[in-house]
Amino acid sequence: MRFFLSVLTIVFGVSSFSTAYSADPKKSLDSLKAKLNKIGVPRISGTDKMAGKTVPAIFFGKIKVNNNFDVVDDVKKMHGGTATVFVRDGEEFIRVSTNVLKDDGTRAIGTPLAKNKAYDAIIKGESFCGEIEVVGAPYDTCYEPIKDAGKTIGIYYVGYKKR
């Protein structure tokens, strides 16, 4: 039996250890935050085009995150699941860096966070962890405000699609 599980791990990349670790939204969120904050302090500077609309540009240090997928893709490689950086645009939060996919297989950049329990928490400056629908499917998620001088300017997000 042990040999069979080893073969499954080699052939299919299945490992109960990595699956158990990777499905922890809080650990993955900590990883996303650490990677971005290592780059620098978050701030808004100017605007950028995202899926045909103009939104604020969010930076960590000197690196603009809009349309930059390096960190979210790295978090996915390390932990599985999905990761996103949202920017605040008035009362909306828009995906500017994400590996969440739409039905057509493209990244869901430029799409807003739905007005749900996570939105309600974030708008109050609070974090949220729990089940939420993401682009129409149920996910185990964590959302945390990105703040600059105490003001919410965006959101860190990670999630795992429920099976």
What are its keywords?
three-stranded antiparallel sheet, alpha+beta, disordered N terminus, 163 residues, globular, five-stranded antiparallel sheet, 31% helix, 8 strands, Beta-Lactamase
Descriptive account of the structure:
- This protein is α+β, with helices and mostly antiparallel strands and 163 residues long.
- The chain has one domain (24-161): Beta-Lactamase (2-Layer Sandwich), CATH 3.30.450.
- It has helices spanning 2-12, 16-22, 25-39, 70-79, 117-123, and strands spanning 42-50, 53-60, 63-64, 82-89, 92-98, 128-134, 137-148, 151-161.
- The strands form 2 sheets. It has a 5-stranded antiparallel β-sheet with strand order 5-4-8-7-6. Strands 1-2-3 form a 3-stranded antiparallel β-sheet.
- The chain is globular, with a radius of gyration of 16 Å.
- The two termini are 26 Å apart.
Short description:
31% of the residues lie in helices and 39% in strands.
SSE topology sketch:
Blueprint: H1 2-12, H2 16-22, H3 25-39, E1 42-50, E2 53-60, E3 63-64, H4 70-79, E4 82-89, E5 92-98, H5 117-123, E6 128-134, E7 137-148, E8 151-161
Antiparallel strand pairs: 1-2, 2-3, 4-5, 4-8, 6-7, 7-8
Overall geometry comes to globular
Mean pLDDT across the residues is: 87
The domain tally reads 1
CATH fourth-tier homologous superfamily: GAF domain
Number of helices: 5
Order of helices and strands: HHHEEEHEEHEEE
